[in-house]
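Example record

The entry below shows one chain as it appears in the dataset: sequence first, then structure tokens.
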Amino acid sequence: MGCKQMLSIGPGVSVGRLSRAVAGGAMAMLLTGGMAKAGACVADPVAVSARPAVSSGLPPVPPEQAEALEAAVRAAFPEAATPGIIAGVMTPEGIWTGAWGAADPDGGAPMEVGMHTRIGSVTKTFTGTVLLQLAEDGALSLDDPIGRYVESLPNGDRIRLRQLATMTSGLLSYTRADAFLDRFFEDPALTYTPGQLVDFAIPGSPIFAPGAEFDYSNTNTVLLGMVIEQVTGQPIGEVFAERVFAPLGLGGTFWPGAETALPEPFPQGFTLQGNAATPEAPSNATHWNPSWGWTAGGMVSTLGDLLVYGQALGTGRGLLGPETQQERLRSFPEPAGYGLAMGCVDGWIGHTGELPGYNTTVFYDTTTDITVVVQANSDIPSGDCGDEAVLPDNPTGIACASPASRVFGALSEALGHPFAMP
């Protein structure tokens, strides 16, 4: 586009692409409220952590509910700037899934349930979960200083692992560093090491004292991945496989590292980020090197896996003990905000994921035990998005939102619990 872009792999509160309003602005408001009083976003953490895992082989949801969910997607899809959508809802009694639009607009292939997509910052919830598992095991403490594991960081002796997980460390996100942005958009095929990513953030850090404020920073979660590798003595992909994928049976979830290929089947992903994209001709970012996201945004998954994972993320079943899960559910600011590697709005807990070409939402409703997942093969926003690049047929008069977030908002309304600030 001839101008510098702000790289996005999730919601944030800074400038450019990281200021994306999600689900009608609720997530952006959630994140800006990140330092409010901790407490009551989840009404009863003990009850939530006691829920059983949803059994496999669930029947379809009742026909009237399926019709309402289908209608919600069909109404929201035309306002979402994406070729295709995959969506699913899992309740204690049943499951509903569907796919709309194109996986490959040029070739004509339709979007299909079961396709693999890049899930961006939903990866952060996996990283945070493993961190909490290691704390449960006594292998580390959330109150350990990051300097114990990674040297030469600004305030490394004062920043606690807990502050990295809650985005209150004061370390600049490397995805807001000009040196990184210039290099990435010059050549999206480059491979990065975690240490290189952190190095991009150091010249601009700290931006505040540890614990003083909230700032959504991908540097935080990359550092947590480095800690996990050091403590376990294993590559992060093996850790995820042993501690999350295998226990939950997530056979379609994949840690790519620097591998640019996606498992079959997968949709093509489109973006307006980068130097070559224009509103008339978005860039195909399907095979951009994912190493730049690492433990902050590198993972690949499927709808079925994310539905199972979303419920486990909410209850802790198969992942964390009840006491640890309850601590996680109490970590959110009141009435909404970002806690231990995930966010909460009015009882909805989870994360959005956004990186060039793909957008994902995974949220669990703690009030109803319902999980909602949406995947889109575009990260292009639509609506009243200010200076952000949008498509030529962009709808106006509606709040700016990324495609999966827009559809998730519609589904939450159809379920009777709109994702909105209380």
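Notes for this example: The CA atoms of residues 96 and 273 lie 32 Å apart. The two ends are 38 Å apart (CA to CA).
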